[in-house]
Amino acid sequence: MRPHTTIRPRALFAMGRRHRDALFTPEGIRRLTAYVDIDPDHVAEDLTHEPSLAEAELLITSWGCPVIDEDVLARAPALKAVVHAAGSVKHHVTQACWDRGLAVSSAAAANAVPVAEYTVAAVLFANKRVLDIGALYREHRTPLDWSRRFPGFGNYRRTVGVVGASLVGRRVLELLRPYDLDLLLADPHVDAARATALGARLVDLDELVRASDVVTLHAPELPETHHLMDARRLALMPDGATLVNTARGSLVDTGALAAEAAAGRLHAVIDVTEPEVLPPASPLYHLPNVLLTPHIAGSLGGELRRITESALAEVGRYCSGEPFRYAVHPTALATSA
């Protein structure tokens, strides 16, 4: 929080230029320049030799922001805050920033909305077997006995397991509550009372995996979550169950998932993979029981406007001497995405 003054703080865009162009339209730039003194045409994609750093009090960052390390901070004596117009700040906000005492804000809550919406659509379509039925209908071009082919299909009293009460995980639970679903939650940092308040029953991960018709992943990428869904856990999922991953590709053992899907035992809706782009020969591209999308669950197109609005509001709060609404705290980073 800065003292409220009538002097506009000096600000600098630090992100990939294409992201600046997508996030900050002329109208957004107009609103931003009412708050801060900024060169709207200058975008710092490399902070190594950035002369504007010397006077910048506020960095407005997004995807493609360079790392803000000790060397960068040494050339930014006036820097007091970072407003991140995207989700995670882990890729550019370093320990040196916290040691300096920088105030940091993120639009992660805004970015969580479309990820949760994608996830809910995936859950509902998975239980309804929409992809399977659509493929069969295209093939046969006549109505078939869908109930015979897919006994028990649909969303009534199906069990959905949410792994991780992250921003996205909590939003998914909120959006799923109106449906006639049984919701389970696995998260080592949540107690039973908190899970109940979120509309779910707290269970351990193995129990969740065994009991769920759909397992959806919303845990952070940490050493202890690497291949959280490995061959052993995937084998625990019931026959015909669906795995949804909109979190991080490293949470899933890609080879083990491909083997289960190729055997026809499991279905999957996968938006993030390890590696980020699978090799052309990966079976996940062509298996009929796998929907593979290229990391599109997060904010894209018109959804970017929500992130811009969040960032602009945070800049306004900073300039008014108010605390950030979506402040990032270093102690929370160890368990966040």
Question: How would you describe the overall organization of this protein?
Answer:
The protein has 337 residues and is of the alpha/beta class. Helix content is 35%, strand content 13%. It contains 13 helices and 12 strands. The strands form 2 sheets. It has a 7-stranded parallel β-sheet with strand order 8-7-6-9-10-11-12, sandwiched between helices. Strands 2-1-3-4-5 form a 5-stranded parallel β-sheet, with helices on one face. Strand 4, helix 4 and strand 5 (103-106) form a beta-alpha-beta unit. The longest helix has 21 residues, at 108-128. The chain is elongated. The two termini are 25 Å apart.
Radius of gyration, taken over Cα atoms and rounded to an integer in Å = 22 Å
How would you sum up the major sheet? 7 strands, parallel
- String of helices and strands: EHHEEHEHEHHHEHEHEHEHEHEEH
Give the tally of β-strands. 12
Low-confidence runs of at least 5 consecutive residues? none
* Integer average pLDDT: 95
Helix content estimate:
25-40%
Task: List the strand order in the largest sheet.
Answer: 8-7-6-9-10-11-12
The dominant shape is elongated
Estimate what percentage of residues fall within beta strands.
5-15%
